[in-house]
């Protein structure tokens, strides 16, 4: 029977696999074999957070009082929404460059898991087995730290220590389209993502709290 325990074991098993391959080994379908490894990509920051939550949820199976990880859940929901929206929209408009050739069905399935499947597991965990959105200041600050942290990581570390890919303006940003934007263009893009993240936060809060709960 596929119950909560079995769901959490499956979710953790998948999260562990991608934690090892994408983060510990630095493997990634876009060839992240350079400075920063797999953590150059926001997708892998998302996978890392989902791995932490999946591990904590499995611990909760042994100790139902272990709920200290709940404060991570809202930021994780929003990050999953952002990764899903940004990846598929940017890919649709060719912002990642030419599509890799020679992908196997396994590569395609991995791509769909990283940019959709992992979010399904996370949302099922949060909506059915956990209790998010309990402490706005603490929870939203986590989202803010992730948002600012990734921008600082890209702007001052990843871009500085990598010389590929290259665009008409710069080299080294992990996503090709960013290398075609000057600092003003990137700031505008970051603000758009922040607004999208805030709207996603409101939507996720409404979804988690139920139809009778005010979005504001």
If you had to describe this structure to a student in words, what would you say it looks like?
With 216 residues, the protein is mostly helical. It is built from 6 helices and no strands. It has helices spanning 4-24, 42-62, 73-92, 105-129, 136-161, 183-209. It is globular, with a radius of gyration of 18 Å. The termini are far apart.
Q: What is the compact description of this entry?
A:
The protein is mostly helical. The chain is built from 6 helices and no strands. It starts with a helix and ends in a 7-residue tail after the last helix.
Task: Please give the largest β-sheet.
Answer: none
From the N-terminal CA to the C-terminal CA, the straight-line distance is 39 Å
Percent of residues in helices: 55-70%
Radius of gyration: 18 Å
Low-pLDDT residue intervals, each spanning 5 or more residues: none
In terms of structural class, how would the helical and strand content be classed? mainly alpha
What string, H for helix and E for strand, traces the elements in order? HHHHHH
Number of helices: 6
Number of distinct beta strands: 0
pLDDT averaged over residues: 90
Task: Detail the topology: elements first, then pairings.
Blueprint: H1 4-24, H2 42-62, H3 73-92, H4 105-129, H5 136-161, H6 183-209
Helix pairs in contact: 1-2, 1-4, 2-3, 2-4, 3-4, 3-5, 3-6
């Amino acid at each position: 029977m596929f119950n909560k325990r079995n769901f959490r074991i499956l979710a953790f098993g998948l999260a562990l696999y991608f934690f090892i391959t994408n983060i510990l080994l630095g493997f990634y379908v876009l060839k992240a074999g350079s400075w920063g490894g797999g953590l150059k990509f926001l997708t892998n920051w998302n996978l890392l957070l989902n791995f932490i939550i999946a591990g904590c949820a499995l611990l909760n199976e042994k100790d139902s009082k272990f709920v200290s990880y709940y404060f991570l859940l809202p930021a994780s929901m929003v990050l999953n929404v952002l990764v899903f929206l940004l990846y598929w929209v940017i890919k649709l408009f060719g912002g990642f460059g030419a599509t890799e050739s020679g992908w196997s069905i396994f590569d395609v399935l991995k791509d769909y898991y990283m940019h959709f499947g992992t979010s399904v597991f996370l949302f099922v965990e949060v909506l059915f087995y956990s209790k998010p959105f309990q402490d706005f200041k603490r929870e939203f600050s986590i989202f803010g730290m992730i948002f600012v942290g990734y921008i600082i990581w890209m702007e001052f570390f990843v871009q500085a220590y990598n010389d590929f890919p290259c665009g008409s303006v710069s080299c080294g940003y992990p996503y090709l389209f960013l290398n075609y934007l000057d600092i003003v263009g990137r700031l505008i893009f970051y603000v758009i993502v922040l607004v999208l993240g805030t709207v996603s936060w409101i939507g996720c809060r409404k979804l988690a709290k139920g139809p009778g709960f005010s979005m504001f």
